[in-house]
Amino acid sequence: MPLATLNGIRLNYDVTGTGPLVVLIMGTGSPGRVWRTYQVPALVQAGFRVATMDNRGIAPSDECAHGMRVEDLVADTAALIEHLGGGPAHVVGTSMGARVAQELALARPGSVRKLVLLATTGRPHPMAHTMNLGEQALIDQGIQLPAQYAAAVKASLNLSPHTLEDPVKAQEWLDIFEYTAGAKPSPGVRAQLRMDRSRDRLADYARITAPTLVVGFADDRMLPPVFGREVAAAIPGARFTEIEKCGHYGYLERPEEVNRTIIDFLTARTA
Q1: Please, which residues have CB within 8 angstroms of residue 86's CB and are 6 or more apart in sequence?
Q2: For every one of its 271 residues, what pLDDT tens digit does the chain have, with 9 covering 90 and above?
Q3: Quick one: which of 106, 125, 118 has its CA closest to 207?
Q4: Catalytic residue among 61, 95, 111, 160
Q5: Is 248 a catalytic residue?
Q6: Residue 220 falls in the annotated catalytic set
Q7: Catalytic site residue 219?
Q8: pTM, entire model
């Protein structure tokens, strides 16, 4: 993956395919390569040029351990779009990445052609806030949960009960989560967790002009679909759709349906 100096930091990114540009923005603590399992191949096959990146905080992009703001990630994404030939680009984000995408559409409307927001929100909520504080406290106090228990907690929070009721699928996910549970969160991930999430932005999203699709995952415990419905209601003309039998990682649990939903929206003619 190329490493370029953009917006004053080193940003690691990758581009695949030809056609209209789609930029995919990942959530907190996750590298851009997560998109490459399912979304990148499907979008390339559909005729798009697809860019993924490691957000600041995720090595080998600069970790920016001293701190960061959502506005910094917005500017990073805008700089990448400019680096790849300029906008507008289709922009797809999930969780924290969706928050970055919707703020990009608000601050840099010329950078965004169409906007897809997966598992998003536009306002703070005490459950998400407390979970975030708890994750920060574990890091700051040097507490590492037993790998098996950490895997079970992560699966319970991020996957649908419909996925976990299948013993084979459940074990596959638990093995993946247990394998990664031993890694100590980096200073960059800590900085991502520390970003301010306290502002209610729903009223501001009335100024977003890009055609927008908001996708909620029916069994999402981290950001329930009701929050996505609020974002869709706030953005003029935005559509909302809900995908069943998947949780916060719906793009990995139900990739075919998620991919089809994204591609149908991106390829549809707009008035």
Answers
A1: none
A2: 689 999 999 999 999 999 999 999 999 999 999 999 999 999 999 999 999 999 999 999 999 999 999 999 999 999 999 999 988 999 999 999 999 999 999 999 999 999 999 999 999 999 999 999 999 999 999 999 999 999 999 999 999 999 999 999 999 999 999 998 877 889 999 999 999 999 999 999 999 999 999 999 999 999 999 999 999 999 999 999 999 999 999 999 999 999 999 999 999 987 5
A3: 106
A4: 95
A5: yes
A6: yes
A7: no
A8: 0.96
Q: Which amino acid is at 218?
A: A
Let me know: does 205 contact 211? Beta carbons within 8 Å: no
Single out the catalytic residue among 62, 72, 219, 220. 220
> Strand locations in the chain, DSSP E?
3-6, 9-16, 21-25, 49-54, 89-94, 112-118, 212-217, 239-243
Indicate which residue of 72, 111, 160, 248 is catalytic. 248
